[in-house]
Fold:
Amino acid sequence: MNEKYLRCDPHVHTGGISTCCPLEYSQIIDEKVAQGYQMAVLTNHSQSWYCPPSRHGDLMQRHLEEFDRAYAYAKERGLRLLLGVEVTVRDPAWTDWLLYGVTENFMLNAPCLYNLTQKQLFELCKIYGIIMVQAHPFRGHSHIANPQFAHGIEINCSSIDVQHKDEILALAQMHELTVTCGTDYHGGNDFIGGMFVPDWVKTGRDFGDYLAKTQNTSIFFGSETIQADTSPQTPEKYGIAYPTREK
Structure:
């Protein structure tokens, strides 16, 4: 059976939300298209220095508005854009978490995400059926977090982070974590890497479904491709299962 796969960058930011990104969504999308990507996940930030906890709902509303604008432009350019979010928690200190499978309902009704600990965020993700992946775990300000409260771990394609790919693959096998690969794209660099994602993935919810059920992920760095063997998430760890996908 020959299933079509798309080149995906599952870790992308835009300047409308992520203040660390100097480019607007249209510029980011143009660059992703020029680099040969066919799919991307918009994972703008939820962090304590963006707004006070009492205004977190407003921040999530702005996330959704930015996504809608970016989605419309990406559709024009032939790029499939999916919804995600990156959350920075304080415990363990300043670790970053990519959430896949988020929905508008989750974004608007969840408590302040950055006020949660890793364990609390994980338990919330179980309720909503969301995959929680540690972003760029070997980056200087981060720490390798407790694998008991995570679904996956990212190999980041920045020139420093990608040097740790063998260590990350070993950790993923040891702890049965799903491996993702993304660029943490803010524009202005030529890091090429990501994942090959099946064509049936049409939404951010589908992407979470794919990560939850696949036994291995296909990741790439430039011309190098790696099959990262993992175990599908168990119902006990994953929480609410998605509805069965129609064939």
User: Anything to note?
Assistant: The CA atoms of residues 2 and 198 lie 10 Å apart. The chain has one domain: 5-238.
